[in-house]
Amino acid sequence: MSTAVIVDRARGPTTRGHARMADAPHSFDLHAAFRDHGGVLLGFTINALRDRALAEDCVQETFLRAWRARDRFDPAKAGERTWLFAIARNVIADALRARDRLPRTSADDASAADVDVAAETPDPLTGLGLTEALALLPDEQRDAIIAIHLTGYSYAEFSARCGVPVATLRTRVFYGLRAVRGHLDESGGARD
Description:
α2 (about 30-50) runs antiparallel to α6 (about 130-135), α3 (about 50-70) packs across α4 (about 80-100) and α6 (about 130-135) packs across α9. It is built from nine helices and no strands. About 70% of the residues lie in helices and about 0% in strands. It is an all-alpha fold. The relative contact order is 0.09. The radius of gyration is 20 Å and the shape is globular.
């Protein structure tokens, strides 16, 4: 997926047939935003949807919505990355709702089993807030949290692997987890 495709879709028709990039306000540069945040958003959506093709469509829709709402972007309220992740979260929620509306192809006698499986299947939006919170962290904090809490390295093992003192790693994890908790509390990302 290239920025040219996103820009062409975002431009939409005008009296001459196409809008120009010069029509965009100076506060939001689509090409720079895609270059800086496109890969991270793609990883975020793949993680949330577990479907690469749908995730690519969601990233494209995210930048399309961002382009259309570029006049409402206010760098004083939030950073560009935060704004794009908020849009992506809404696009992902829309995609999940649309996917749930699709008819299931199963036998009638298996429908009772599907109800039991659906009751046991976790809501994919549950982890979305945590994934978003981790994505918003600085790389050093995110890497330390993932290595220590998700991968299972001890502080000493990860320190030897990355060459950073244990005390520094503990500080990064502490402040990173505090930021994650704050983000989850703000956005209501911790669902029960």
